[in-house]
Amino acid sequence: MSYTTVYRFQDLNGYESVISKANSDMTYEGFGRILLNPGQTLEYKVTGEEQAIVLQQGDMTCWVEYEGVTVVDGAKGQRGNVYDDLPTALYVPPKATVKLYSEKGMEARVFTAYCEEGNAPYFCPPENIEEGEPGEYIYKRKYRFIFGQPGKHNDHITKLLIVGETVSVPGGWIGFPAHRHDYERPGKECVLDEIFSFQMTSTEDGPGRGGVMQHGYDLTDENKKIWDEVNVIEENNTAVALPTGYHTTVALPGTRAYLLWGLAGDTKKYKVQFDERYSWLEGCLY
Q: What domains are there in the chain, each with its CATH number?
């Protein structure tokens, strides 16, 4: 039995559903991808879920019609790369119709959370992204809150989704110590699905782009391993479903890793349990 599952994109034109209830153990969250050729338009109605569309590369012009009103009307975003450029994002609630146009071609990745009611559509430009750079040594990284958890940046935009990005230093860790969100323990932990999607680049010229190791595991109350899995990812066309267990990621030496992450539960909430065996490292992390 596998507790974490790697999904590879099929590189389909338009909207591609990658992770859903039908092909995963996820309860609250799904994932998709949008690819548009130069000059292409994509239009669809969102049903039974809200979406957070995060531009990866290229350009997009956005329209969203909601309750008979065009709430987002021709808002434009562009991005050169995910390592150096802040994202443009679009929040789309259920029952809304979204239209995207790309002049030169684009890729976006999409988190979904299952719900029948959402908030108002919102276009999030790069200047409304919160970016920070905590940590020291190989724990140093950039974080970007797109639609943050309660109490964080842009927490009011979505109904359920929590979405952000992290960029590592070469060979660095993202999300260490590992954390989980599997149990409802008021004030300590809550139940959330999480999905990771990666890109990576080598810091030196060479035949490959590098890679990351995504580590998932679970422990007993006595800190004995229940299960332990490592996914080695060397492609920019994957997403990982994390319905249970502790999880963390490290970039291979010479690799700068980009992690797009999203969480969702039955309500908008965020409380995670860190692996307490590594609590002594807190001074290096923040």
A: 5-285 (2.60.120.10)
